[in-house]
Amino acid sequence: AQSVTQLGSHVSVSEGALVLLRCNYSSSVPPYLFWYVQYPNQGLQLLLKYTSAATLVKGINGFEAEFKKSETSFHLTKPSAHMSDAAEYFCAVRRGFGNEKLTFGTGTRLTIIP
Amino acid sequence: GAVVSQHPSRVICKSGTSVKIECRSLDFQATTMFWYRQFPKQSLMLMATSNEGSKATYEQGVEKDKFLINHASLTLSTLTVTSAHPEDSSFYICSARASSEGDLQFFGPGTRLTVL
Questions:
Q1: Which residue of A has its CA nearest to B3?
Q2: Which residue of A111, B34, B92, B106 is 20 to 30 Å from B3, comparing CA positions?
Q3: Chain B residue with minimum CA distance to A33
Q4: Bigger pLDDT: A2 or B22?
Q5: Among B43, B90, B97, B112, which would you mutate to test the A interface (most chain A Cβ atoms within 10 Å of its Cβ)?
Q6: Do B43 and A90 touch (CB under 8 A)?
Q7: Per-residue pLDDT reduced to its tens digit, B6-18
Q8: Cβ of A44 under 8 Å from any chain B Cβ?
Q9: Exposure pattern of A28-41 as b/e (b: 16+ CB <10 Å)?
Q10: Which residues are paired to B5 by β-bridges?
């Protein structure tokens, strides 16, 4: 079975500072990995996905993530935080093509300090 | 892009009543939809997989007689919480699989259910 672990349930960064949200995965087969963002009382919006192509994945809103097989990690970064980035972020894993179920991490709440 | 809607966005009901939540894919057909529930400050937990024209597949521990799922068309799935109790209060989110988008799941905005 696959799983994801998000280190740090809360992360605070200053506006303009680097954002780093950590995600480690466990999967018996090459995984598909995703980052989603959730604003209060809303559903999830896909930020980016890794599906076994390029290991550095660029997403929306200036976010990117790098798949590192040796570290079983898929950390999310953004060079310069903006106030609008304040939200809950979820890492998710899927077994790969043909398997539809997503397994979500516990989420990281990102707070931006003005 | 692929858009998924949910209705209602918020519902308050009395204990013992039933509540129906609709999930619609607005600009694509979805043979598969998923229902999740999310407790405050927690992650999404998959409840069931809804397949058009067939019975839903429920995750372990989810009561199929309590959470009735119907996927009668390629754009609509409904979740009915029967005989709701306060412990059913939660945020329910659906997603729809878009085969035209590499099987990505697109999520609805969620429904906040409060059972008094």
A1: A45
A2: A111
A3: B104
A4: B22
A5: B43
A6: yes
A7: 999 999 999 999 9
A8: yes
A9: eeebbbbbbbbeee
A10: B24
